[in-house]
Structures are given as C-alpha cells and as structure tokens.
Amino acid sequence: HAAPRALPGRWYHHEDHPAYALFRRGDTDGVTYPAVGSPEWSAGYPDTDVTKGTPQAWIDALNAAVKAGKIPNIPVSTSTGGNPTYPQGFDPNGPEVCSATYKCRNKEDLWDAPDGVFGSSFDDGPLPTSMPLYEFLKQNNVITTHFMIGSNILWNADAFTYALETLESDIAVHTWTHPYMTTLSNEQVIGELGWTMELIHNSTGGRLPKYWRPPYGDSDERVRAIAKEVFGLTTVIWNQDTEDWSIGESTGTTRPKVDASLKEWITGPKSPGLIILEHELSNNTVGAFMQAFPLIAQNGWKFESVARLDGGSVYQNSGDDTDDVTPQAVGVLAAASPSPPAGDSSSAASSSTTSKPTGTGTVTSGSSSTVSTG
C-alpha cells in the first residue's frame, strides 16, 4: 500500500487565491445570512441544472485557470451506470488522466489516515435517516465529517442545523446532484461544486468548505484541478469500502457482510490508518457503523474526523464550527444575485466538451475497480 500522506497544518488561502473572491463572507458577527430553512435561504439555487445562473465570478475563475494551463485538457468520460470509461488513447491509470475510480492516486488527494487513526466520515446526508446517526454521535461525544449533497441540505434543513449546531460536525462538499463528475463538462463541474459550497457557506456563518469527496470516487486530473484551482478544495477518497449503499439491492451486499468487513478492518493492521466509505442512507448503513463503533476504541484506534486529520483548520477560512471566520473581501452572493446565463461566458468554461475526441471509450483490460456510490 502507499504510505499515508500528511496534510499541511492550519492554513488559509492567501488573498490572491481565486477562492477568496468567489463567495460573500464576513466574520461571525458581520454578514447576516437568511435563517437556515427559510424561503429567503433556499431561494435562487438550481434544481438539477447546475449551470443555470452560474455566477460570472466562477466562470471567470475557471477561464483564468484554463488560460494559465492549470486545468488539463483531457476528454470527459462516459458512463452508463458503471465505471466511467475514456476514449482510446487515454489510460485512466496513466499520469495524464489518473482516475481515482481506477485507484490512481494523485499525491495531493487524501486516501489514507495516519497510522493508528480511524478517519471518520459519512456521505450523502443530510437525510431523514441521518438523525439516528446524529443522536448516536452526540451520545458518544464524537465529531465526524459529513460530505453533504447540496440539494439534500435544501430539503433537510433541520437535520443540517442539528449536525452543525448541536453536533458541531465538520461539513464538506459532496456535489449538488451526486453525478459521475468526470462525465461532466468544466462548466457543469463548477456548478456541482460551487452551488454546494455557496449553500454551505451561507448556512454556516460564512465558512468556506475545505474538502470535497467525488460521488462514486469519480475524479481525474481535470476534475480535481478545477476543484483545487477554482474553489481551493482538497479531494478526499477512501481506502476501504463497505459497499453499504447497496444493502437490499438485488446485486448488492448484505448487512452481515458489511458488519464482517468493518470488524476485519478495525481489528486488522493500523498502517495505513483507515478512511472507510460509509453512508447515512438508511437504518442499515447507520446501524452497521453504530454496531462497529465500540471496536474502534477497543482495538486502540484514535477516532478522528476526516477534516481534522491534518491537525489544522476544518474550513478554508475558519478553524472549525465554533472558531471565528477570517474577515475577507466581499465576493459574489450567488444565490441572491445570479449572473447572466452561462452561455454568455467565454468558451473555456466548456472546453472539456468541445475537445472530447471520438472513440469507443475503451480502457486497459484488468484496470477497472468496483463502483461505489461515494
């Protein structure tokens, strides 16, 4: 296995980083945001078309990164429900593409926790099924990272507020609609990430997420570069997958298999540390974690939220959910003041679509991995 990668210590983006100018901000007693769950709070966000009303600041930041050569010009992948594939001539395991779906590790991505550390996180919330998990976390006085879907936050504002204010959980990005990210154009990628960041930012007193996890673990050099260069996000994957999301499906796993996998990993070697893909999707997915939880301490693991593995800040501009938010220049209030339609922007925003080669989308034999929902 690869050696665990240490993240830098506490840090914030410098004023010349594009992420500084993309979102409105203020310190904790500065900007007054609409109350979470109110009509004013939910107004202005997209439904499923994340390119609708894309803020010009995001498009400008993308175009600048493309012009500077920071966004690789590789083709979008295609998927019919399984692992995304690339046109002939583009190796998903090669350095040009480096697809996380195919287990290619970019050195800047986070896959492993430090030795002896159980890096905790949950995907796909907030949902009604999240509450038993949240109550369990509160009872056991532990903090985790929630990679949240933006549209789920809109529909489950109470659960979001509980996670943030009662649990003081760490909130991270899991896109707006949970797509295969490498199948999207550049403009769609910034919509999926940007709208989710904007909603989290406007719902947490101005905190800017620092981490994101691609749905299905589907990221490549183009997508991770957009996340980093436009939004300042670090990509987080995992090194073990329970496949808990598939419990109950005809070709899926079972709860006993998930329980057995968790026990095997927690009682196994402590190098590298664990980052296990888990979901707050159902009573079974949540129940599997709760059943395995006592084993973590019993086997000498240190339980730590994934967003805190580096010992630094949880957010780009704040230490955590209770720390002050670093004052920053006023940016774009995207939800309230959408910019002109994305079609009015320059062509660089959709360069991945226009540059896509024709081909069958075949990949190197034997290099595929199991699909996960992420």
What does this structure look like?
Residues 329-374 have a biased composition (Low complexity). GO terms for molecular function: chitin deacetylase activity. Its cofactor is Co(2+). Keywords: Carbohydrate metabolism, Cell membrane, Cell wall biogenesis/degradation, Chitin degradation, Cobalt, Glycoprotein, GPI-anchor, Hydrolase, Lipoprotein, Membrane, Polysaccharide degradation. It is a single chain. This protein is of the alpha/beta class and 374 residues long. The chain has helices at 39-42, 56-67, 130-139, 150-155, 157-166, 186-203, 221-231, 255-266, 283-298, 351-354, and strands at residues 117-123, 145-148, 170-173, 211-212, 234-235, 240-241, 274-277, 302-305. The chain is 28% helix and 8% strand. The protein has one domain: TIM Barrel (Alpha-Beta Barrel), CATH 3.20.20.
Order of helices and strands: HHEHEHHEHEHEEHEHEH
Report the strand count: 8
> Low-confidence parts, pLDDT < 50 over ≥5 residues?
1-12, 327-370
Categorize the overall geometry. globular
Number of domains: 1
Total helical segments = 10
Show the helix and strand layout.
Blueprint lengths: L38 H4 L13 H12 L49 E7 L6 H10 L5 E4 L1 H6 L1 H10 L3 E4 L12 H18 L7 E2 L8 H11 L2 E2 L4 E2 L13 H12 L7 E4 L5 H16 L3 E4 L45 H4 L20
Parallel strand pairs: 1-2, 1-7, 1-8, 2-3, 4-5, 6-7
Helix pairs in contact: 3-5, 3-9, 6-7, 8-9
GO biological process, one term: cell wall organization
GO molecular function: chitin deacetylase activity
Enzyme class: hydrolase
Which key phrases capture this entry?
TIM Barrel, alpha/beta, single chain, six-stranded parallel β-sheet, 374 residues
